[in-house]
Amino acid sequence: GDVQATHIQFESTSFTFVAKTPQGDATIKANLIGRFNVYNVLAVLATLLVSKVTLKDATDAIAHIQSAPG
Q: Full-prediction pTM beyond 0.85?
């Protein structure tokens, strides 16, 4: 199934969006910047979900992602 981002909101050091997934909807917050990272987070989320990680565990893990230094 498809994984989509809606209601994307950017802040100076993070973004949030609502992820629409076959397992349900979830609010995602990531301490990253840039629209390209929204796509990266969607790819991570889709990979975790097809790997049988629960939506809650996946969103919790994504909340801990940090950008690379530099």
A: yes
Share of the chain residues as helix, strand and coil, in percent rounded to the nearest 5 = 35, 35, 35
Strand, helix or coil for residue 35? helix
How does DSSP classify residue 32?
Answer: -
Q: List strand residue ranges (DSSP E) for 22-62, in order.
A: 24-30
Average pLDDT value over all residues in the chain: 95
Q: How many CA atoms lie within 13 A of 50 on its CB side?
A: 8
Q: Which amino acid is at 46?
A: A
Q: Which two tokens stand for residue 15?
A: 């973004």
